[in-house]
Amino acid sequence: MKLQNPFRRLFAPNSLRFQLLSRSLLLIAVLLVIIGLFQYVFMQRFIYENKALSIQSQIQGIPPYAWDLMAGNNSDFIPDKPVKPDLPENGPPDTSSEDPDHRFNHGPFFFLDSSIVLIDSEGNYSVISNSSINVETPPKLSGQDYQNAMHSQQRLNYKVLNQSSGDEQLIVLQPIQTKGHLLELVQVSLDTKPLKDMLIQQLFIFLSLSLLALIGAMLAFIPVLRKTLVPLSKIVETVEQINVGNLAERLPVEQGQLEIDRLAVSFNGMLERLEASFEAEKEAKEQMRRFVADASHELRTPLTSIHGFLEVLLRGAMNQPDKLDKSLKSMYAESERMKKLVQDLLLLAKLDRSPMIELSVGELDGMIKEMAPQLRVLAGTRKVSLRLTSNLRCRFDEDKMKQVLLNLFHNAVQHTDSENGAIQLSLETSVGGVELSVSDNGSGIPEEHLPYLFDRFYRSDSSRTRKYGGAGLGLSITKSIVEHHGGRIRVESVIGEGTTFYVWLPTSDGL
Fold it and tell me: What is the value of pTM for the model shown?
């Protein structure tokens, strides 16, 4: 069973190895077939041309006057020496020691299984021999073909003729000349079947060798492919070990294969994003847990207070005007505090889900000047100063920015002395935008509290904040609004000297 598994994985249709192997072999097979077809076409032309050149050479090797003798015609070019007409039955004898003029006796035997025709200058058609077993009469071309061959300047004149019987004939035309005079035209035709048989045999040999080459390539390609896919197998093994509790695992990125390395880099990036996402989700769950606990605590305090006052009233305090008035005022204050807490929680939920912020281009200093009387009322006897640069345009939601300014100003009021407190609002240009700052001369914030000031329900001074009805949500709301404007908020504080909040907003050109 263990021996079957590797082959089953290798030859499974959906296996990457099988697909690479099959497609590569299919591509090679198609290329070999195309090469074989081209080879057949070019080899056919090459063999036909070589055969025609061989026949032409044999025709030129026979004396010109011999052709008339073989055709039974008289010729003015017959040599003085007599011609021996007898020919041996078993083919041409050795003529190396004979007179060159006697070579014509053996000429026709060079064209076995062929037909020889002599055409004179007047167009007379004389059959010298017809040794072809496939045709009864030699093929006859048109007069124009013979005229073209007689006067052609080509070194070799041949053509392939397809007959009505389905046979194919190779026809060679060769003019016979003596001392520059054109005598006759020799036509030699032979069946191309032996040549085609040789071509088919060569093609069969080529295809057989190609098949053997494909089998050898498959056997050699399997281990090469297996070794090539080793990095991919390592990635699969590593991925199988990764789970929610082991997202820190990473894939090797330098394995000598560019595509695999890019895949590993991309996968590592995905793991980093997943890990960050899980960490963010974990942190969000922890924040939600703290949020629910803090919200429950903040709501429990006013509810407990109201419940206590109601018990006092039910025990008979309602009949005592001074206690009744005090209890009602306390319950009203607690209900107001609870109402503000619920409103802040709803606002944070809206900002987290789908903030309704409508940005428009305007001048921020005009909005601050408009709110100045309200701010001075909130400050009471504290000193309020404005240092605003005019004509600083940016995109902002006026209602939301008023809330930001009120939250920061209210925070400054809470942390400054009512008699000697001083609050300053500044507006000036900054790199790529405008910067609004709210400074006070209060007690300051310890450095260890600064990183957590914008966390929900966080209070650096719990007693003072509770005294003024705060729940630690104002700065969280402020930060969320500023970030939805595309801006930033930061804080600087020195113990005993005061605190400054800086709000940076991009200009209209930067959005």
Answer: 0.45
